[in-house]
Structures are given as structure tokens and as C-alpha cells.
TrEMBL record:
Protein name per its UniProtKB record: Signal peptidase I
EC number: 3.4.21.89
InterPro entries: LexA/Signal_pep-like_sf, Pept_S26A_signal_pept_1, Pept_S26A_signal_pept_1_CS, Pept_S26A_signal_pept_1_Lys-AS, Pept_S26A_signal_pept_1_Ser-AS, Peptidase_S26
Catalyzed chemical reaction(s): Cleavage of hydrophobic, N-terminal signal or leader sequences from secreted and periplasmic proteins
Organism, scientific name: Chamaesiphon minutus (strain ATCC 27169 / PCC 6605)
Enzyme class: hydrolase
Compartmental location: Cell membrane; Membrane
Domain Peptidase S26 positions: 16-174
Membrane topology listed for this record: Single-pass type II membrane protein
Signal peptide: none
NCBIfam families assigned to the protein according to its UniProt record, in alphabetical order: sigpep_I_bact
Length: 205
């Protein structure tokens, strides 16, 4: 006489619960990455010395739903229309320098906003080019790399529309010996009267 097959309802329920938890976790993680924050890595030296090649960053994707980018923010953005025409596909990261309506110029190794020179302690070297003056359009931003003489940025291809901005760098979590909370760094480059605080891993230029 053959032995009957005994089914364990508890085991079946356990597997279903585990699958449900895994599914909900995946949905939650996808939601976080899509709407709240994501990790990115740096493949180029355009933001040196602040950001080094292979640095890993957390990008805050939600704060700009409630506030506007500020001078000094390191923003991650999709290629602008001009960059897309040049066949760029990866996101970029640069520092916000000019806000909507401001006049920006680069001359004699200094950046000027509304004719006031910025104090920029974070740049690799003084810019060796002249640029502007230009007026930043509404709903757009002028961005520059901290490695001024080795950065493909607004002084080449123009402004970043607000709708192309993905978010801002808030934390460097790798390497551990260079862990940095960028929200706690005081940015000294503001114009007078505007002093401010400061996928799988996707690449940003």
C-alpha cells in the first residue's frame, strides 16, 4: 500500500508570504529609486577636486518638488536638447552658479554674478577662459564644473532647463574615507546677500 502524499498548508502559506514580501520590497525599492533618491557614480574628473572619479553619491530626487535649485547645489540633470543633439545620453553633474534672471560672466580668472565676484574655494584652478556676460533665462540655470578648465558645461552649451534636472547630490557614501554630507557644507560662493547652506549605480559626467 503506497504512502499518501501529505501536503503542509503552513509551508505553502509561508512561500506565498515570502513571495509577497519580496514583491512588495521590489516595488518599494523601485519607487524609492524612481521618486525619492538613487545612487550614482562619477566617471570623469569634471567636478574635481570636490568629486573624484569613482565616487559614489546619493542623489535627492524629491526636494526640488518643493523648492528651487540654489547656487552651490551640485545638480544631476539629463542631457539638454543641445547635448542630446550631440548624442549625449548619460546624465551630467555640475554646480549651480547662475539662477534665473541673473547675469553671469567669467573674466580674469573669476566668476561674476550680477557684477559681484564669487568666492569659490572648491575649484581646481581659476578659469582660463572668458565667457559672457549672459542673462540666465526663466526656469533655467547656468552650471559649471568645479574643474573649470576641464569641464564640458554651460560655458560651452548653454543653460539647463528646470525640467531636465533630476536632483541634487546630498551624500558621498564611497569611498568611506571621503564620506561627505553635502547638505552640511557651507557654500561661500553666493552673491552678496545670498549666503546659503549647502540605477544600479548610473554614471554621471
Amino acid at each position: 500500500m503506497s504512502n499518501p502524499i501529505i501536503h503542509n498548508p503552513a509551508r505553502g502559506n509561508m512561500w506565498r508570504e515570502n513571495l509577497k514580501v519580496l514583491g512588495l520590497s521590489a516595488i518599494f525599492a523601485l519607487g524609492i529609486r524612481t521618486f525619492v533618491a538613487e545612487a550614482r557614480y562619477i566617471p570623469s574628473g569634471s567636478m574635481e577636486p570636490t568629486l573624484q572619479i569613482n565616487d559614489r553619491l546619493i542623489i535627492d530626487k524629491i526636494s526640488y518638488d518643493f523648492s528651487s535649485p540654489r547656487r552651490g547645489d551640485m545638480v544631476v540633470f539629463n542631457p539638454t536638447r543641445t547635448l542630446r543633439q550631440e548624442k549625449f545620453h548619460d546624465a551630467f553633474i555640475k554646480r549651480v552658479i547662475g539662477l534665473p534672471g541673473e547675469t553671469v560672466a567669467v573674466r580674469n580668472g573669476r566668476v561674476y554674478v550680477n557684477d559681484s565676484a564669487l568666492t569659490e574655494t572648491y575649484i581646481a584652478a581659476k578659469p582660463d577662459y572668458r565667457f559672457g556676460p549672459v542673462v540666465v533665462p526663466a526656469n533655467s540655470y547656468l552650471v559649471l564644473g568645479d574643474n573649470r578648465n576641464n569641464s564640458y558645461d554651460s560655458h560651452y552649451w548653454g543653460f539647463v532647463p528646470r525640467h531636465d534636472i533630476i536632483g541634487r547630490a546630498v551624500l558621498r557614501f564611497w569611498p568611506l574615507n571621503r564620506l561627505a554630507d553635502f547638505d552640511r557644507i557651507v557654500y561661500l560662493g553666493s552673491a552678496p546677500g545670498q549666503s546659503q547652506n549647502r540605477e544600479t549605480l548610473s554614471r554621471i559626467k
